[in-house]
Specification:
With about 425 residues, this protein is α/β, with parallel strands linked by helices. It has 13 helices and 13 strands. InterPro entries: Glu/Leu/Phe/Val/Trp_DH_C, Glu/Leu/Phe/Val/Trp_DH_dimer, Glu/Leu/Phe/Val_DH_AS, Glu_DH, NAD_bind_Glu_DH.
Amino acid sequence: MNATINTPKKTGEKVAQGMMENVLAQFNSAAHHIDLHGDIQKILKITNNEIIVHFPVKMDNGSVEVFTGYRVQHNNALGPYKGGLRYHPTVDIDAARALAMWMTWKTSLTGLPFGGGKGGIQLDPTNYSTSELERITRRFTYALGDNIGPEHDIPAPDVNTNSQTMAWMADTFMSTRLPAKRSLNQHVVTGKPDGIGGLEGRDRATGYGVFLTIKKFLAKQNQILKNKTFIVQGFGNVGYWTAKFLEEEGALLVAVQDASASLYNPNGIEVDSLKNYISINDNSVGGFPRAEIIDKENFFALNCDLIIPAALGNQITEENASKIQAKLIAEGANGPINNEGEKILLSNNISIIPDILCNSGGVIASYFEWLQNRNGEVWQLEETLTKLNHKLEKSFNKVYAYAQEESIDMRKAAYCIAIKRIEKAYIQRGIFP
Ligand SMILES: NC(=O)C1=CN([C@@H]2O[C@H](COP(=O)(O)OP(=O)(O)OC[C@H]3O[C@@H](n4cnc5c(N)ncnc54)[C@H](OP(=O)(O)O)[C@@H]3O)[C@@H](O)[C@H]2O)C=CC1
Ligand SMILES: O=C(O)CCC(=O)C(=O)O
């Protein structure tokens, strides 16, 4: 039997580069603004735990590959670690650290009783069959052992993972507990299918939240979504659902980019016909007949009202920011704009709804799923969406008002609010005797 070791490498791709620098620069700027206690700065600049596991998996052809999985637990001052798992070639320890930090700010901003964590496996899932991915996921869960748990660290879907991945994780985790405890562990992950404790609406929650924050932002400017044009990078969970809700409100999708191609049609791309197309075309938008293919370098420069990056990090940078014509960017993805890019956008009066607010609908719905499992309840879709809207309204209004009061951008405002809540927890706990 052959054994292949998938040695983790620094990916060198722009996606993972500088993510830590970005998140730390964002943190430093807010910490300075609120004059955050120096000891708390020290605590929040590092991660609590970094778990790296190597685990063997048998491939369909009988060979064995050894994979490397990551789970970074940044901070749990407000509650158990919470955040997604990503399967992508760009996953490495730096990316996991940065993404875990973003989760801490996000769960704090939204007022959830959670901290922040993130992880994943450095692999390209298109190279593996479904049964191989199932075995990889189960072995990863087994290797993580008690480093995850329903009251300790609760993973969820992210790039290239979904409700099926979460079902395999839940099943593996629960079946390795003592029989009498198995059913008490269903909330070890969220984003599960509805048949095994998943929340109706978790699938669309992130996109719904992105849509709501855009709508709320436009309302503050006395504008509406009807007839606004928008472009979306990424047509997966977040990109699709965001586009779907925006279209339902009368906005027009004019361009879409995924890893395979960039599509453009100034007269509009119908969201569900593109979705139907990708479902029979290897999940790729390339070749969709009712749009032209454009050069990917020109994508963000297209003439439109709104841009929704909903793929990977570091997509809008000093290299392309000055060409952007849209007046609003809503960050469906985590960290899609780097700091240099952001400076250019802000100096060109382009507004940004920051990731930790914009895409927080996902983790809010995950919290609802966690509560549902913990309390032995079954929630209905309407209830989920109403409660999600209510929670997002509260965080949106807080961020918007604070940004206005302090004359700062919305990202800095969101960070200040998030960090102050963690600071309060540390002070009340008495970390400084
Ligand atoms: N899922 C969730 O609930 C949440 C997700 N997020 C963030 O949203 C983003 C998207 O996540 P999600 O929708 O779940 O992931 P998915 O895996 O469902 O979709 C990812 C999409 O991004 C596209 N993509 C990948 N690489 C590139 C590239 N180089 N250029 C253009 N497009 C690319 C993929 O295209 P292809 O299929 O061709 O590879 C796919 O369409 C991530 O940043 C994630 O962290 C944030 C909050 C919650
Ligand atoms: O639902 C969750 O727990 C986290 C989702 C996530 O990874 C994110 O918000 O970036």
